[in-house]
Amino acid sequence: MPASEPIADLRQRLEQLNQLEDDRTLAKKTGRSALNSEALMESLRANMLLGVLSHHDRLRSRGRRSIAEVRHGVCSGCHMSLPTGLQAEVQRESTLLKCETCGRFILSAADAVEPPLPAKIPQSPKRAKN
Ligand SMILES: [Zn+2]
């Protein structure tokens, strides 16, 4: 059995993969080349658990993103309220969960745990796009 991955790591990679695939779709429409993202996408996919990846692909094939955030107990993908037990599990972030209605992987919204102070996180110039 593979050791369970930190959920935050998995979440980040799923988000990145969704974003890259959205970019690629857009690139195809506009005739732009998306060569750089292809390599990155491949490496993300190569490191994804098979079960997660196949579910992701199923959702993508229907034109959906494979992840949705949960805000105030509501799935941002289908806007349905989640059962209380599932909401609590999402908050715990111990495992990757799926919405019972739309099937997306659900994760608690990052901004749900905003710090009370309006301190700005400095943006690193290293993470510029491209
Ligand atoms: Zn949903």
Summarize the structure in short.
The chain is an alpha+beta fold and 130 residues long. It has 4 helices and 4 strands; from the N terminus they run αααββαββ. Helix 1 packs antiparallel against helix 2.
Description:
The protein has 130 residues and is α+β, with helices and mostly antiparallel strands. The chain has one domain (7-110): Orthogonal Bundle (Helix Hairpins), CATH 1.10.287.1490. It has 4 helices and 4 strands; from the N terminus they run αααββαββ. It has helices at residues 7-30, 35-46, 50-61, 84-92, and strands at 67-71, 74-75, 97-98, 105-108. Strands 2-1-4-3 form a 4-stranded mixed beta sheet. Helix 1 (7-30) packs antiparallel against helix 2 (35-46). It is globular, with a radius of gyration of 16 Å. The protein binds zinc ion. Residues 68, 75, 77-78, 80, 99, 101-102, 104 line the site of zinc ion.
